[in-house]
Amino acid sequence: MPCYGNTARWTMRNKSIMWVLALGILLPSAAFAGQDSGQRMLQQRMLESKRALEKAEQAKGGEQQRLMQEHMKAMDENMKLMRDMKPAKPNMTITEREEWMMEHQKLMQLMLEQMQREHELSMHGAGK
Q1: Which one of 5, 50, 57, 71 counts the least CB within 10 Å of its CB?
Q2: Can you tell me the mean pLDDT for 28-37?
Q3: What number of other Cβ atoms are within 10 A of residue 106's Cβ?
């Protein structure tokens, strides 16, 4: 009987080691998954647009209108880029495609938030 006890312990240890190895293999690949170069470029453009909108929020009168026009033009360009965006890798796994879509959805959310802020600013500015 003691032999079975040692075997069971050995098997549990092997299972634990296998789990640790599997996580060691899977986690690094998950850490590197995410945005592709097109998404990173669009993310940068969205940050620049956000800064322009923040400047417009601080500005007054004609300067605010000019900055709002610049922001709207940048958002229009970003929207076109987003519509035309496709995954960079042709033969993606299901997991890679899902990760790409999640990153794309994050960019869409950033765009929506900026459009809402822009609308609020234009409504607030119109009320003055």
Answers
A1: 5
A2: 57
A3: 15
d(CA 104, CA 122): 27
pLDDT for residue 9:
56
d(CA 119, CA 96): 35
Q: How many CB atoms lie within 10 A of CB 60?
A: 9
Tally Cβ neighbours within 10 Å of residue 42: 21
What is residue 37's predicted lDDT score, i.e. its pLDDT?
A: 87
Residue 85 DSSP code = -
Tokens of 89: 């890798």
Residue 58 and residue 64: Cα distance in Å, rounded?
8
- Looking at residue 27, its pLDDT comes to 42
